[in-house]
Design brief:
It contains ten helices and five strands; from the N terminus they run H-E-H-E-H-H-E-H-H-E-H-H-H-E-H. It is of the alpha/beta class. The longest helix is centred in the N-terminal third of the chain and has 25 residues.
């Protein structure tokens, strides 16, 4: 299989797509996802791990809010990964992720994930190429374990925002008072390392056993629709069934 290059993938919706109709479709998809999530929770046969990975301002929070709006909070969780704590640094890099893996019946959304440990750490020179390769092997083994030992569906989304659009979104966090709580000076420093990040994302995507969905993210209405389609398709393929009472023996 030929290695992918992110420059070959679009950042925007197809030109002939209607925004309002697409937003209506997304709402319908989200309702169907909620119905399937209810069935998955009741059946308690599968677990689902959804990984949202992308540059700052690529829309991770927006996807969670839109695509999973009709899910029952009892059966779905989301966790936003930040800089590791002192205790987390004292363990192997997967420790903090493994303890958050979903139990059967539940959907867990990782807002960022274990991939941070081969992305930001490599871009900033905190790990070597050899250590990154070893961590990539461990990540593949970790995801294999979840799939084959706990019947977990692993869905991975790389949020493909353009450099120009990210710059606009970061500037909004300065100019718009309602978004200033999101502003972080460090995000601008990481923005300047764009090419290095793209190299690292390509490494992660091309060396993953579980494939990634590459999501065009410059338009949030299409971004949400794209992810909702992929999630609904994958959950439908699980064919979950509501448990019923066993018929009494005659």
């Amino acid at each position: 299989m030929k290695n992918i290059q992110l420059k070959d993938f679009p950042h925007k919706a197809p030109k002939d797509l209607n925004k309002q109709k697409t937003e209506n479709k997304t709402e319908s998809l989200a309702r169907k996802i909620g119905e399937l999530q209810h069935t998955i929770y009741a059946e308690a046969k599968h677990s689902v791990l959804i990984i949202l990975q992308g540059m700052d301002a690529s829309g991770k929070d927006g996807i969670i809010k839109s695509v999973f709006a009709h899910c029952n909070p009892s059966g779905i969780d989301a966790y936003a990964f930040k800089k590791p704590t002192t205790e987390e640094f004292a363990h192997d890099f997967l420790w903090r992720c493994h303890k958050l893996a979903p139990r059967k019946g539940n959907i867990m959304i990782f807002n960022r994930s274990h991939y941070e440990d081969i992305l930001i750490q490599k871009v900033n020179g905190w790990i070597s190429d050899d250590k990154r390769a070893k961590r990539m092997e461990a990540i593949n083994a970790f995801e294999d374990l979840l799939i084959f030992d706990n019947n977990t569906l692993v869905l991975k989304f790389y949020l493909h925002i353009s450099k120009e659009r990210q710059r606009e979104k970061l500037q909004e966090r300065i100019d718009d008072p309602s978004k200033q709580w999101k502003h972080n000076d460090a995000d601008w420093l990481e923005h300047e390392k764009w090419d290095d990040y793209m190299d690292c994302y390509e490494y992660a995507i091309n060396n993953s056993k579980v494939p990634w969905h590459i999501v065009p993210c410059d338009q949030r209405w299409y971004r949400n629709y794209f992810v909702a389609q992929k999630v609904l398709e994958a959950l439908t393929a699980l064919n979950p069934q509501l448990p019923t009472l066993a018929k009494p023996a005659e």
